[in-house]
């Protein structure tokens, strides 16, 4: 039996680099009582190489019908959490094609030995989807790799007394005899792991109009919501000034009735547990962290998982920037604090390539943030924030590597600025923790 492709060594047995999705049209119906999901996915795609097979990622759900360009393929079969479709004739490189896959089953999180479980998860009364980094196949067939971004149409039918929140802009809501159907459009290119659906009994509030800032929260959230999220609009304005305009048409915050250990990142929305309804800094900093991911991670997305610091280091540094802007401790103070703590930790992490076991280690977050602060101290505030804005405006909608960021930083500071070679080598490509400039 031939082996199936892996697109990224950090996430084995996910993704097929031989084809690329252009658009996902997902039509889903969910029975909360039985935890049963039925769906039809229409995937418009292009062959990157000659294709004698099309390998998709789909976990715990059974494909019951597959149509390729309006006709039945030669065959299709499930292999573990992959779906292999064999066309009757080889699809030549550059050929566009359409897959229509009907599927159903009981969705459940997918467990990875390095990253634990991720994906579709039942709450006490509702559902969340935690996609990062390997959870997308638990609810739709996809090419699960971060460098394959596509637009999405999401149609979800759920019981009448539940609210559905998904990526993008809500374009319609239709009440039928047995369910309400919600339709969302995400036109901006999006990686599979950033796609999400959140279902619960929520009170939906508008916090700001430009861009629309929405919150779906428990009906009994009380004063805790104002404590935890009352400055979300101000936070969005601050980050827009620092990083450039907010990159999507809307931003939504979902607060589940359940407590969640960590918040969930997804494109154009973030999800938090009830335990984040507080003004404690440990909660507020993560509200800032998830919002910052809209620029760093969602608009500008890594090409390879080894470059995760481009997401988490930037979002962690944004926590310090919000502290500074909102009257708390300065970024200098936070940098000194976390540098001292990292100096006492093991010096065995390579920031530009931490390995799958350490890619979500807290040291990636903090050392990534410290790398940015070292750069800021070296080139000055004006050049630093000009660089961040240029980084987003140049690469929004696309994928990047560490080398891309280094190249842009060097180009924008040369020939009159400081030499950044040693800075990037010591912070990114060597394990010992450098001194802050």
Automatic annotation (TrEMBL):
Domain Aminopeptidase N-like N-terminal: 22-194
Family: Belongs to the peptidase M1 family.
CDD domains found in the cross-reference section: M1_APN_like (cd09603)
Organism encoding this protein: Nocardioides plantarum
A Pfam family reported for this protein in Swiss-Prot or TrEMBL: Peptidase_M1
Peptidase M1 membrane alanine aminopeptidase domain location: 233-427
Enzyme class: hydrolase
Matching Gene3D superfamilies: Neutral Protease Domain 2, tricorn interacting facor f3 domain
E.C. number: 3.4.11.2
Cited PANTHER family: PROTEASE M1 ZINC METALLOPROTEASE (PTHR11533)
Annotated keywords: Aminopeptidase, Hydrolase, Metal-binding, Metalloprotease, Protease, Zinc
GO molecular function, a single term: aminopeptidase activity
Cofactor section: Zn(2+)
The protein, known as: Aminopeptidase N
Catalytic activity: Release of an N-terminal amino acid, Xaa-|-Yaa- from a peptide, amide or arylamide. Xaa is preferably Ala, but may be most amino acids including Pro (slow action). When a terminal hydrophobic residue is followed by a prolyl residue, the two may be released as an intact Xaa-Pro dipeptide
């Amino acid at each position: 039996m031939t082996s199936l492709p892996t697109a990224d060594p950090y996430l084995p047995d996910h993704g097929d680099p031989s084809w690329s999705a252009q658009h996902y049209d997902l039509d889903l119906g969910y029975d909360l009582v039985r935890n049963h999901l039925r769906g039809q996915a229409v995937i418009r795609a292009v062959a990157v190489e000659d294709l004698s097979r099309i390998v998709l990622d789909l976990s715990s759900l059974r494909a019951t019908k597959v149509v390729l360009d309006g006709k039945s393929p030669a065959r299709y079969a499930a292999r573990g959490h992959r779906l292999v479709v064999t066309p009757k004739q080889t699809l030549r490189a550059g050929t566009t094609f359409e897959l229509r896959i009907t599927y159903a089953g009981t969705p459940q999180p997918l467990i990875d030995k390095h990253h634990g479980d991720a994906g579709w998860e039942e709450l006490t009364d509702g559902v969340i989807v935690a996609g990062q980094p390997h959870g997308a196949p638990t609810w739709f067939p996809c090419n699960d790799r971060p460098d394959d971004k596509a637009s999405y149409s999401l149609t979800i039918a759920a019981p009448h007394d539940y609210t559905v929140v998904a990526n993008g802009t809500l374009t319609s809501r239709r009440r039928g005899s047995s369910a309400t159907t919600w339709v969302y459009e995400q036109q901006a290119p999006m990686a599979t792991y950033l796609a999400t659906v959140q279902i619960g009994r929520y009170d939906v509030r508008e916090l700001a109009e430009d861009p629309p800032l929405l919150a779906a929260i428990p009906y009994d959230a009380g004063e805790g919501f104002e404590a935890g999220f009352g400055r979300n609009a101000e936070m969005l304005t601050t980050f827009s000034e620092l990083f450039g305009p907010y990159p999507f048409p809307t931003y939504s915050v979902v607060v589940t009735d359940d407590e969640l250990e960590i918040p969930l990142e997804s494109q154009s929305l973030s999800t938090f547990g009830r335990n984040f309804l507080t003004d404690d800094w440990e909660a507020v900093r993560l509200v800032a962290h998830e919002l910052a991911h809209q620029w760093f991670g969602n608009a500008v997305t890594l090409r390879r998982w080894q470059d995760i610091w481009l997401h988490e280091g930037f979002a962690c540094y944004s926590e310090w920037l919000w502290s500074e802007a909102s009257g708390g401790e300065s970024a200098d103070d936070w940098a000194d604090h976390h540098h001292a703590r990292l100096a006492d930790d093991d010096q065995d992490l390579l920031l530009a390539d931490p390995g799958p076991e350490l890619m979500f280690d807290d040291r990636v977050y903090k050392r990534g943030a410290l790398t940015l602060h070292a750069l800021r101290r070296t080139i000055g505030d004006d050049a630093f924030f000009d660089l961040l804005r240029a980084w987003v405006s140049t690469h929004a909608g696309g994928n990047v590597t560490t080398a891309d960021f280094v190249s842009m930083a060097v180009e924008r500071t040369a020939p009159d600025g400081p030499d950044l070679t040693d800075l990037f080598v010591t912070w990114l490509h060597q394990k010992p923790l450098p001194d802050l400039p």
